[in-house]
Each structure stands twice: as C-alpha cells, then as structure tokens.
Amino acid sequence: MLRQSTRSIAVCASRAVARGATRQVSQRGLKTAVAQGLRVPVSSWRNSMVVSRAGFHSTSLLCAETVKVPQMAESITEGTLKQWNKQVGDFVNQDEEIATIETDKIDVSVNAPMSGTITEFLANEDDTVAVGQDLLKIEPGEGGGAAPAAKEEKPAAPKEDPPAKEEVKPDATVADKAKPEAPKKEEAPKPAPAKQEKPAPKETQKKEVEQKVAGSRNETRVKMSRMRSTIAKRLKQSQEVAASLTTFNEIDMSALMKFRSKYKDAILKEQGVKLGFMSAFAKASCLALKEIPAGNASIDGDSIIYRDYVDLSVAVATEKGLVTPIVRNAESMGLIEIEQAIAGLGKKARENKLALEDMAGGTFTISNGGVFGSLFGTPILNMPQAAILGIHAIKEKPVVVNGEIVIRPIMVVALTYDHRLLDGREAVTMLVRIKEYIEDPARMLLEPKA
Question: Cα(318)–Cα(104) distance, rounded to whole angstroms?
Fold first, then answer.
C-alpha cells in the first residue's frame, strides 16, 4: 500500500511539473524555457506548436472570389463581352452592374454578387465567353479599401520622371564636343538644292491629284454585333429553307379611321393608352388564323404543329436591330389589352430592357413598315413561323365605289407565307378576311373569341 501511494504521488508530481512547464512554455515561449533549463515534455512541444499555428491562423484573411458568366437562357450558351462598366481597383456594391454581355437576342448584365473591390479581369472586351466561365475576381469587403491605394500609386510614378530628364543634361557636354564636326556637314549643302529640285515635280503631281478627287475617301471597319450577325443568319436561313411567296391586297381604312377618331380620346383618358391601328390588325389576324390554322402552324421535321393559341410577334426597330417581342395569347385579348401590351413591349425594346422570355417563341408576326413611310414591301418570314403580315403607310387614292370615283385612304398590305404549309387559296383567303375585318371593324365584335 505504501509503495502504491508513493508511486501515485510521484506520478501526480510529474504531471504537475509537466503542466507547470507547459504553462511556463506558453507564457515565456519555448526558447525562454529551454534557456532557463526547464524540462519540457514532448507533448508540451506539440501543444505549443498547435497553439502557435492556431494563433497564426486566427486572423481571417479575405480571399478574392471568382465571378462567373451567369446563366442567360436555355438556348443561349455563350455571348460576347461587350464592355466593362468598371475598372480593376474599383469598389462595387452588391448587385451593381459590372459588365454587359451581348447575346444573339438581348444584352445580359453581369452584377456583383457581393460588395468588394475588383482585383482582376479574366476576359477582355469583344471576347466570346461561355456560361459558367470565370469572368473576374472580387475581394469581398466594405468601403473599397483597395481603390484609394491604386490612386495613391499613380502620383508616385511622375516623381521618378524629373530625375530621368536631369540625367540627360550632362550629355549636353558630349553634344558640345561634337560641334566641331558640324562644319564638315555644312560643306554638303551645295548639292542639296539639286536633290530638292527632283522631288518638286512629284509634289506638284500629288497636289493635282488631290484637286481632282472631290469629297472624302475614308472607310470605317466596324465589327458586326452579335445581334446583327444572328439576324443575318436567320434571314438567310429563311430564304434557303422556306418556300416563300407573297400576296398583296388594298384595304380601305375609312371605317377604322372613323372608329379610332371617335374613341381614341376617351380611351386615352380612361385607360391611359393611345388607340392605334396595330391592335385592330392584331385582332383581325387572330380571327383569320382561327379560320386558316395553317397560318399559325410550323414545321418540325416531318410533322406539322398546329396551335389553338396565337403568340403574336410584333416587329420593333431599335438602334441595335429589329427585335420581335411577343404578345402572349393575343387571341383572348381585346383591342385595348392588345394596345397596352404592344406599347409596353415597345417601350422595353427602346430602353433595352427586353428579357429573353419576351422574345422566345412566337407563332405569327406583324411588321409595320408604315411608321417609316413605306408604301408597300415584301416581308420576310420569321422562321419557323408560317406567315407574316406587313402593313404600310396610308395614302389617299382615287377608287371606284358604287360606280363613282371617290378619294379614300388606302393601305397596301402584304402576306408572306411558307408555301410548304399554306396553299395559295388559303393564303389569299386569310388576307381577304383581314381586309374584311378592317374595313368593317364592328364585324370583329360579332365573331366568337378566337
């Protein structure tokens, strides 16, 4: 019993010494403990190393995070980096726009996922970037600490320039020593006049040529935008794939113009929208497509897809090109609802705020060239649609009505159709129905909903 108690006391004493040594090591440091001749157990060395490592990593270091190219749409996997809206070193707030990516249809904004400072760009302007690709790096933080540092570095550079200029001054003495050689060079001017006399005729010839050419001969090469390139490909594809044919007709706009002038002020006051001609043509087209469903169909491989709804594509001209935002289920809308939808889409298009879902799909298109003064034209199919209606400017013409010549406001309309889907009889019938509805707007109210 005495031996066991003695052993236990010795073990406890050794543990106490080890704990004391460990405390001294942690307080004074390992080097100090060794210098003082303290016995430091191996475990205390390991614990001290862990403590020192933990102390080293206790400071949270902010690492730059990589921002990737965002998802744009199911059918779009890449785009062109149009421009950087910020520079390296700039501080950006969360959701602030950093860059703009141009796609085949619209421009997509890249916004900051967090507040911080831009540290590096991983792509250049005009580069083609894919969805999920690394785009830039941002160091998270508040207040933009890195930006002032970048600004302070700029003034430091010019200070080094003056010494460089001063160092050049001593070389002037070397130039002065070279002056005695100048008289040797001055002896050569005698043959110089003879040499100058030879180019003189060439200069006179250049002046004569410049006088003959009138106006500028400058040329500017600009890279085609992605949207314009896509439009070109789609239109060329339309010519190569579809069997396009166009039929024309004239519409007397008298009745619709009277209808519009009678109700436009009241509708503007009560509904806040201007009543135009586009809504009437949209409604008439929906009713005609109900009678001729092939005009609202499309070809998919060896099959024909017929639809019981009309997603109306309305052609809108913008600075970047022609876009066709869509009025969904136009067949179920009234004139005022269609007018409101078209006005909203047109505003978004002009402000470059159209989303991809605003232009995806479309079963029938109306293109209004009359707003630019076009008298008539042949619209081109918006594939894979089967038909497109082109409406034009209204001009007063002499026409025969009940055996008498009268002056009436006439619009020439054109229907381009895919002859693979529509025969001539169906296409002409469809355009005639549109003509009848426009010349007698009240008839549209008698028709059941499309």
Answer: 14
Active site residues: 419, 423
In angstroms, rounded to a whole number, what is the distance separating the alpha carbons of residues 347 and 41? 79
- 350, β-bridge pairs: none
Q: How many CA atoms lie within 13 A of 187 on its CB side?
A: 4
Contact 76, 88 (CB under 8 A): no
- pLDDT tens string 398-441: 999 999 999 999 999 999 999 999 999 999 999 999 999 999 99
Whole-model pTM: value is 0.62
Encoded tokens for 349: 């298009």
**CB-based burial label for 83 (10 Å; 0-12, 13-18, 19+):** exposed
The larger pLDDT score, comparing residue 22 to residue 296, is at 296
- DSSP sequence for 243-284: -EEEEEEEEE-HHHHHHHHHHHHHHHHHHS----SHHHHHHH
- Count of CB atoms within 10 A of residue 425's CB? 9
β-bridge mates for residue 409, sequence order: 396
List, as one string, the DSSP characters of 91-153: EE-TT-EEEEEE-SSSEEEEE-SSSEEEEEESS-TT-EEETT-EEEEEEE-SS-SHHHHHHHH
With a CB cutoff of 8 Å and minimum separation 6, the contacts of 349 are: 316, 318, 323, 325
Exposed/middle/buried for 356, CB within 10 Å: 0-12, 13-18, 19+?
A: middle
The CA distance from 387 to 278, in Å, is 17
